Amino acid sequence: MKKIGILTCLNSNDVCTRAGCLSAFRERRDFFSGYPEDMILAAVMTCNGCKETNAKEPAEDAGILEKADRLVSEKISVIHVGVCRLNEEKKECPRITQICGLIEERGIKVIRGTHKE
Fold it and tell me: What are 53-80's pLDDT values in tens digits?
């Protein structure tokens, strides 16, 4: 049985319930299409905030490093990154990009997307 996870932006907590991500997974649509029924969603995580609220870069943030290592210990094979990763200019947040790199360094595949905007 394969396990996947979802990474979202901490700032999206103000307006997001993760319902779009979760329903896309449950219905196996959008970025989750083609996944078998026995694939399980085993982790949902957020970044630890922007530079204004968290001065630590992801590679130096003990919390982010612990989260990335936990994904490995839970045998997560794929992380999907929510649409909240994009800023107002429709560019990926640099911190999310760094976190994705840390996750990929641990052998976990990263897919940018969960559901359509």
Answer: 899 999 999 999 999 999 999 999 999 9
Model confidence pLDDT, tens digit, residues 2-59: 999 999 999 888 888 899 999 999 999 999 999 999 999 999 999 999 888 899 999 9
Place of tokens 């839970």: 74
Adjacent-strand bridge partners of 29: none
Residue 92: CB atoms within 10 Å: 14
Q: Count other C-beta atoms under 10 Å from residue 37's C-beta.
A: 6
So where are the chain's domains? 3-112
Contact criterion met (CB below 8 Å) for 17 and 89 = no
Could you tell me the two tokens for 104?
């990929």
Q: Which two tokens stand for residue 54?
A: 């968290």
Helix axes 62-73, 94-105, angle to 10 degrees: 40
What CATH code would you report for 3-112?
3.40.50
Can you say whether the dihedral through the CA atoms of 75, 80, 85, 91 is positive or negative?
positive
In angstroms, the CA 69 to CA 26 distance is 26
pTM of the model: 0.93
